[in-house]
Amino acid sequence: MKQSTRILLILVVVALLPAVVKLQSIIDPQRKQFLPDRAIVSSVVTEVGNNPVVLPSQFVAGAVIGFREVVAGLLWIRANEFFHSGNYEAIIPLTRMVTWLDPHQIDVYSVGAWHLAYNFTDSQSRADRRLLLPAIKFLEEGVENNPNIFDLYFEEGFTMYYWKKSDYPKSVYWLSEAAKRNPPFYVHTQLAHAYERNGEIDKEIEQWKKCIAITDAALKKDPNDERAWQIREVGRRNLDLTLIRRVDHAERAKHPVDVKFDAQFKRLGPRKFRISGNINLPDGARVEMSLIDADYKEPDLKKFTWQVDPKLTILYDGGINGISVQDGKFERIYDISKDVTMHPLAKEKYVLSVWFNPRNTTQDIKDVSGWSGEGITDKRYLDTSTKGIRMIKKVVMLRREDII
User: Strand pairing of 314-317 and 272-278?
Assistant: First the structure.
């Protein structure tokens, strides 16, 4: 090709580029309603921290001429490569960019939030609790951009609030919203479990009845629907057991058992300590703990950002990750000497809390404690500060020098 011809073609392409962009907007006049607002776009530039989000020039060109979804898909493939190599820090900026280009890739919101809440861990495999709120906000953004499908409502209600944060009122809210959006069977059954964890047993019973009715309707349409048969039998069993337990728990509440709880903190070395104690509960019960800056207040985060306060310490062991009870005793050694970045201990005062929450435990333990602690008490550490729950909790104030 002659040099003059090549130059002419380049000039033609440049001249036609504005027309292509304009034509794309005419072809798809509804695109604006699917794009994130300016605040989301600006966060890509202003909140990158040590992970700059820079779109390669060929991707920028693809986005400009209308292939945003294609570019987003290619970036998501790249993020998957980072996942398999264990480079989790590189994934979050890419998820930010993918959802900016295509805010309807709900799997990206789901996986990105999961990475934030679960995959950034310390040397003893504890997730960085500071990133939980950003994970929640990332899913909220996904819900705003995809309000009519159940998926991200469910992720928020189950993965974040039920499983990770143990905030059951909010879990009930988000799962209820998911249940309104024509979801699969498991969303309705999980809502029943959330009602139970929230101490709303009457609503749990009604939800199990609803699950049975939903599966009955499905089986009328397709008698060979094995999944519907399975869910219906599970619903019937759980309904019967809940009705039986409601009577049993009411009897236990008349004579609550003193669990004789106590917990001790012992420094073993620099950034190394032991939490131990005793509690009169069956083997397998879990005692939870947290060590948090004394002046900590959860930030009122309006928009998603993965940046966190580098001076903040939130050491947390809760739910199934709590300290296991064996023969009425519990003990765990914490060594955070290798985790200065995640647990900086930069403040002078800390609140150490050690507790048993009956709503976070398994059904066999609840058969002793009751759903909301109605079957237990403690002469020294009964905590009724949270409405409707009888927790057992000891709080100790520590200084930095006690840990360092």
Answer: unpaired
Place of tokens 């962009």: 21
- Structurally, at CATH architecture level, domain 257-403 sits in Sandwich (2.60)
The Cα 403–Cα 103 span in angstroms is 45
Question: Which conformational region is residue 291 in: left (phi greater than 0), alpha (psi within -120 to 50 degrees), or beta?
Answer: beta
Tokens at 275, concatenated: 């939490």
Q: What is the pLDDT of residues 47-90, one digit of tens each?
A: 434 444 444 444 444 444 444 554 555 554 555 555 555 555 66
Question: At 45, is the pLDDT very low, low, confident or very high (cuts 50, 70, 90)?
Answer: very low
pLDDT in tens, 216-268: 999 999 999 998 999 999 999 999 999 999 999 999 999 999 999 999 999 99
* pTM assigned to the model: 0.81
Give the 3-state secondary structure of the chain: CCHHHHHHHHHHHHHHHHHHHHHHHHHCCCHHHHCCCHHHHHHHHHCCCCCCCCCCHHHHHHHHCCCHHHHHHHHHHHHHHHHHCCCHHHHHHHHHHHHHHCCCCHHHHHHHHHHHHHHCECCCCCECHHHHHHHHHHHHHHHHHCCCCCHHHHHHHHHHHHHHCCCHHHHHHHHHHHHCCCCCHHHHHHHHHHHHHCCCHHHHHHHHHHHHHHHHHHHHHCCCCHHHHHHHHHHHHHHHHHHHHHHHHHHHCCCCEECCCEEEEEEEECCEEEEEEECCCCCCCEEEEEEEECCCCCCCCCCCCCCCCCCCCEEEECHHHCEECECCEEEEEEECCCCCCCCCCCCCEEEEEEEECHHHCCHHHHHHHCCCCCCEECCCCEECCCCCCCEEEEEEEEEHHHHC
- ∠ CA(255), CA(259), CA(260), 5° rounding? 125
Predicted pLDDT of residue 48: 36
Tell me phi and psi for residue 241, to 5 degrees.
-65, -40
Structure tokens at 232: 């219906």
Q: Can you give the length of the chain in residues?
A: 404
Domain regions of the chain by residue span = 1-30, 35-103, 202-252, 257-403
